[in-house]
Design goal:
Layout (H helix, E strand, L loop, with lengths): L3 H21 L14 E9 L5 E9 L6 H14 L15 E8 L3 E2 L7 H4 L6 E6 L2 E5 L1 H6 L4 H11 L13 E5 L1 E6 L6 E4 L2
Antiparallel strand pairs: 1-2, 1-3, 3-8, 4-7, 5-6, 5-7, 8-9
Amino acid sequence: MISVIEGAELVILARTAVEKYLLESVVIRSEKDMQQKAGIFVTLNYVTTSKKEYLRGCIGFPLPEKPVYQGVIEAAIAAATEDPRFPPLDKHEIGNIIFEVSVLTPPQEIKANPADYGKEIQIGRDGLILHWRFGSGLLLPQVAVELKWDVKEYLSNICYKAGAPPDVWLDQGSKLYKFQAAVFKEVEPRGNVIGVGL
């Protein structure tokens, strides 16, 4: 798995990629060649003067299809400029943004009876991916903790994220996957990086 030192390097890489992209309009390529592939998500949180954090963008790749460094660069820039829930990040906001990088384990299908999902899912450890006949959705492990959801609320909200009715996880045609994540986050904009929940 990724160490805290390597995680800090990934957070710094995410910030550098976005700053260079926004301030210099140049897409950077990491000089490091980390061959390990992993799913990657980059989350941007805007911090107010009263220290409250608000989601400002989150984009990633759930499957281990890209080398970690490449995935971080691409996800960071996409989180800053392509998250359809928010306007693109303005260069004047960058000083108020906390960067967070999640390095995902490969998703594993939960093969239990849906009535037993509560025994298979641990809040704070497991992220969820739901595939149903009209789409899919993903929630990172830290989301359920931040929003204080229990397993049933988590399952309802993964359905919502997938654009589905809240009980579609019970449908036999739906597939539910779980994964874990090593999460690294700045404590303040451009500040030290810590491992979250490690």
